[in-house]
Sequence to fold (168 residues):
Amino acid sequence: MARIVHQLESEIMARDYMIKAYRARGDEAMARRLEAASVSMEAGTSPEWMRLRDGAMHRIGVGHTHDMDSVITGIFLPMWRVRAYTVAEKINIWRGKLWSRPFFWDALIRDDLRNRLTEFALPVYFFVGRHDQTANPELSRAYFDAINAPVKSFYMFENSAHSPLFEE
Fold:
């Protein structure tokens, strides 16, 4: 679900997308703030981008969910309703998210799965939200097309962003 392919490339695409989207909404101030928050293949993600990113995504429906008012109502509470997770797993998801980002973010954003994981001996299924700018759906589709697997299927959720599990 919401397959990360090359996160740094996705971050650059998200920034470009959001600048255009905020301009189209007439929010020139936010467009300028996004332009000032650098993201590049060479330098990675700036602290300004990381501070601005999630809130800017959520306000235009391209972050965790397509129609999200807050992380609490959009992700935290829906996750508690997923019966596939134990209570301990639900707690550890959030603990892991908070603890791990400083340790692996730089390595994660620079890892390009297209260059190292294209052969699979098991079925591969991608579940992707059309409005996802956290993990760009175009990158996910291109990666999926390059994969060799005995069975593979790509599912696009038209009314979702990064979390089709909670949205559709």
Q: What stands out?
A: The chain has a mean pLDDT of 90. The first strand starts at residue 39 and ends at 40. The beta strands are 39-40, 44-45, 124-129, 152-157.
